[in-house]
Each structure stands twice: as structure tokens, then as C-alpha cells.
Automatic annotation (TrEMBL):
The entry's keywords: Membrane, Transmembrane, Transmembrane helix
Pfam family, one: DUF423
Species, as recorded: Pseudomonas frederiksbergensis
Gene Ontology CC, one term: plasma membrane
Name under which the protein is recorded: DUF423 domain-containing protein
Annotated localization: Membrane
Family named by the database record: Belongs to the UPF0382 family.
Segments traversing the membrane: 36-60, 67-91, 97-120
Length: 123
């Protein structure tokens, strides 16, 4: 799991920074301020949960188990669903894509819950 989660963290970190720069420079004059703020929310959540994924990768070496694996997988799914839906919504203007966003938020919550439960179970 270490390699997989580290690779995902590197990918999401790289794309989060790239998308943030793209929004700041390439989309600034193309999106409404409201849509730009939505895009920025996607970048923020992506980068925060990239750090969480990095932490999970490191924890997986010390605390192996399903809960840590589920936490990492949930963070990755959350980034794809939450941030990805916000990016697509703002770029395409298809507001119905916003229905996907809460599922990503739920995945983030599951990840944090699994991480907390794994911590609780430590001896």
C-alpha cells in the first residue's frame, strides 16, 4: 500500500498545484467569480486530502490493516468525486454535475472516520 498511496499522493499533489495555477492564470478571465471560487474549493480540498493521503501512506507502514487502507482509498475516491465534479461543473457549466460532489464529501468523511477508528484501536 505504501507505494500505491505515495504514487496517488504525488499525482494528486502535482495536479492540485497545476490546476490551482491554471485557475489563477488561465481561468481568471473566463469564469465568473462564483465559478472561480467553486474551482478554488476543489483545489483546496484536493490538496488538503493529498496531504492526508500522504499521511496514510506513511501510517500504512506502521499500522497495517484494513482501516488504514480504507482511509487512503476513501481519500482518493473523495478527491476524484468531490474535486473532480467541481472542476467539471465549473469548466462545462453543467450544474447537474454538482449532484456528485456530496458523494465525494461522504468519501472524505469515511476516510477520516476510518483513520480515527484505526487510531482508537491502537494499544
Amino acid at each position: 500500500m505504501l507505494r500505491g498511496f505515495l504514487m496517488l499522493a504525488a499525482f494528486f499533489g502535482f495536479t492540485g498545484v497545476a490546476l490551482g495555477a491554471f485557475a489563477a492564470h488561465g481561468l481568471k478571465n473566463r469564469l465568473t467569480p462564483e465559478y472561480l471560487a467553486i474551482f478554488h474549493t476543489g483545489v483546496t480540498y484536493q490538496l488538503v486530502h493529498t496531504l492526508a493521503l500522504l499521511g496514510v501512506a506513511l501510517l500504512a507502514t506502521q499500522i497495517p490493516g484494513r482501516l488504514i487502507t480504507w482511509a487512503g482509498a476513501s481519500f482518493a475516491i473523495g478527491i476524484l468525486l468531490f474535486s473532480g465534479s467541481l472542476y467539471l461543473l465549473t469548466i462545462t457549466g453543467i450544474s447537474k454535475l454538482g449532484i456528485i460532489t456530496p458523494f465525494g464529501g461522504l468519501a472524505f468523511l469515511v476516510g477520516w472516520f476510518c483513520l480515527g477508528l484505526a487510531a482508537w484501536r491502537l494499544a
